[in-house]
Design brief:
The chain is an alpha/beta fold. It has helices at 2-81, 119-131, 138-145, 155-163, 173-178, 184-202, 225-230, 250-259, 276-284, 342-354, 363-372, 381-387, 404-413, 424-435; strands at residues 82-87, 92-97, 115-116, 151-153, 213-217, 241-242, 262-265, 306-311, 326-329, 390-391, 400-403, 439-441, 444-451. Helix 6 (184-202) crosses helix 10 (342-354). Residues 17-66 form a coiled coil.
Amino acid sequence: MNIKRTLKRLIDDTQYVAALEKQNDLLKENLQQEKDNLQKQKEDFRKEKEQKVADEEAQYKKRSRNYLRPIADMQKWLLENYEFRYNVITDVFEYRKKAEAEVHDSEDAIKHDFEIIDKYAINTIAIEVQEAGIFVRDHFVERLIKSKYAQPYHPIRSYINQVRGTWDGKDRIGDFLRRINHSDYCQRMGRIWLRAMVAQMAGYDEKHANSVMLTLVSTTQGMHKSTFLRSLLPNGLRDYYTDDFSLNQKGNAQRKIVEFAIINDDELDKENPKKMPLMKTLMQTMKPSFIGAYKKNFNRLPRSASFTGTSNQRELLTDRSGSRRFLILEPDGMINVDHIEHDQIYAQLLDEVEHGEPYFFSKKDEKEIQEHNQPYYIKTDLERTVASYFRAPEGGEKGEKMTADIILKKLRTMHVKGVQDITLNPFSKILTHLFGKPEHTRDGNLYLLKEVG
């Protein structure tokens, strides 16, 4: 009986243990299933959240596209109908309708009909955009116009590039300079100066500036001196000529040698002699340093300008050592300023510069300029007195060769004021200033002169 009970107890215990193990397995299975369900819920929640974000982004992009579509339409319409550019010299934006881009002027050259973009232009363009069925705020129109879609534009360099390589081989510079006078001096020196002007405009030499002023002198008014100097520039560049120039404000003067192609100092003889060193400094300045209006940084633009001048007085120079900076020409008569072939003249000058013709004055040229400029110095009272008694022969006239000593004795004999106490050496310098260097002979230094009256 004991054995049976024991066996029965063992069997019951075994069944109990098996039941417990089975129950544990079921619990584990239920726990794993709950864990899997929880994980699935988390994954579903994550996917639902991601989908919601994606849907929101899609809706945002859709709304953005709908919001930006008028701006995109405006951009497309403006660029199809207008051209925009940024004038780096004047620091203004310009525009023109594309339909007007190929309008030609009377010389059959493309007319530069770009206009400045001001408030009136902005409003007009904004209204045209609305009339095209595109509704955007005005500031979007202005923002596009004054952006990368306005290409930087240097009008002077642009013109030079336009005529480069177009010269037909016919010389026009000779006839152009003969409008001033027919002298060999005008032909030789004038050609060099004109090449220097074009080289300056083209930025051909970044180390040297056109440091010589072309100066037209005539005691007779109404000779078209200023008009001729203005006509040095073609019609499309006339805005880059100025005779509004003052040495009283250095920064303003430096700004103008960047903003203009020709700076004309009208009535040069009226300039304060004390300001002339500043003038010479400006003529030699290659990279002017100044801060433009409403700007924070110093100027980075290259110089474009060449200097010209006019005078109704023959006596205008004061510094004899600096006279090589002035190429003085006297018109034979009224200067003809009509029918100037600017494109071909500029093309020829540029071709000559690029093929090695001189566009700067040599030491020999400068010496000749200084000798040529002798009659244009402001004379002292004594120099005027001497000039009233003696002059250089003209037009094949015969003169008399005399030493300074003989001339001085003649003046003293006539009791001329101011010559009694002067010594021979300074008197010789006066004669050289007035009449040029003497001829060196065995009999001394001889001046070829003719007595006045």
